[in-house]
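Hi team,

As requested, here is the filled-out complex form for the adenosine-5'-diphosphate run. I kept the field names the same as last time so the parser does not choke. Let me know if anything looks off before we queue the next batch.

— J.
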Amino acid sequence: MIEENGNIDKSWISFQNVSKSFGTFFAVDNFSLEIPQGQFLGLIGPNGAGKTTLIQMFIGLLIPISGSITVDGKTISRKNIALKRLIGVVPQHMNLDKDLTVLQNMTFAAKLFGIKGKQRDQRIHDLLKLMGLDEYENRITRRLSGGMARKLMIARALIHDPKILVLDEPTTGVDLISRRKIWEIIGMMRKRGLTVILTSHYIEEVETLSDRIVLIKNGSIVVQGSSKELKEYVGSTTVSYNETTSKIAYRFFKDRMKAESFANSLDVDHSVRSLTLEDVFYHFSKEA
Ligand SMILES: Nc1ncnc2c1ncn2[C@@H]1O[C@H](COP(=O)(O)OP(=O)(O)O)[C@@H](O)[C@H]1O
Ligand SMILES: [Mg+2]
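And here is what came back:
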């Protein structure tokens, strides 16, 4: 919430020592994170890092075995309906009703939140228009392209005017043009003041959109910061070279001159370039 003195609450959303195990395996392990209101948070990590498990706990679908998750000081739970109404979710897997039309999927979602009458029709119309789906409202959902289906999932997640939008890999399997359009739409949501939590394995997506990026691995935070901070943490310059004929190796340098002198000492094919967020991801993901 915006506090009375006008300051943004820096720990509006708070994960406190959250863990979740399946049997003896910890998918999320003592995870703590605070998200200020209005922030766009990007969550990246290799497959199996625990991103979806975190999101499912955040939306009350899974219960942590320890720790707690709060929004504005109130604890998320299966029963806290008022809190759930603050959140709009785009899950990782398609869960639209494929036998319904676009409009029927939206109407069904509106009914779940008790949105009725003219207000409902107006809201659905506005959201479908925003997503560029207004011309397809009578199309059966199974006939939508992957990109259109994802856009419909985003429209549906926004039906009850949530304050927090959670998107779990929203552009997986979406063509390039639709992906960029989806970036535009979720970027717009952030500008409208929504707090956004996005998981993705498209580094460019996370880098383009996020104010802050959290890299997770084995259910814990490895490193977090802005894209610039994360890059500076690893270095400024990348030298890639053929370690063997089939294996490319990477070395990261804080100092470009050192990178160049290292590159000059190599007698194999190599290249020197600016360090990217993908290098950061690679660096931390491959470390044991
Ligand atoms: N219901 C479940 N039962 C057992 N293991 C699970 C279950 N859900 C997730 N896992 C495991 O927890 C780990 C984290 O999964 P997930 O949160 O889906 O990762 P991510 O979304 O980052 O790819 C994975 O190793 C996955 O196999
Ligand atoms: Mg996942």
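Two things worth flagging: The longest helix spans residues 176-191. The chain has two domains: 13-225, 231-286.

Thanks,
J.
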